[in-house]
Design goal:
Helices cover 39% and strands 26% of the residues. It is an alpha+beta fold. The protein has a 4-stranded antiparallel sheet with strand order 2-1-4-3.
């Protein structure tokens, strides 16, 4: 199963390299785009849950790395207000 990294820029200009166990993230986030924080979180949650379930379908267990990544995204997002924007910088295949 092809994994992927996606790079984010947060409202404070910090950058994060994130992991997805599936290319499904490409269906939810677009490099060069910025998303309002609530929309970004919704898209990330859906994509990472789908990615984790794809791992479950293939290997018989959910992807804990995808859920850990989502938890890190949610923790970082908690530092910003709902009007903040998150920018998707690029994708890298893992």
């Amino acid at each position: 199963m092809p994994a992927m990294h996606f790079h984010l820029r947060w409202p404070d200009r910090s950058e994060t390299r994130c992991y997805s166990p599936s290319l499904v993230i490409k269906d939810y986030l677009v490099p060069g785009s910025s998303y309002p924080l609530p929309e970004f979180l919704d898209r990330s949650r859906e994509a990472l849950h789908i990615a984790s379930e794809r791992v479950r379908a293939k290997f018989g267990y959910a992807c804990s790395m995808a859920m850990d990544q989502l938890a890190q995204i949610e923790a970082t997002a908690g530092r910003f207000d709902a009007q903040a924007q998150v920018e998707v910088l690029r994708f890298d295949e893992a």
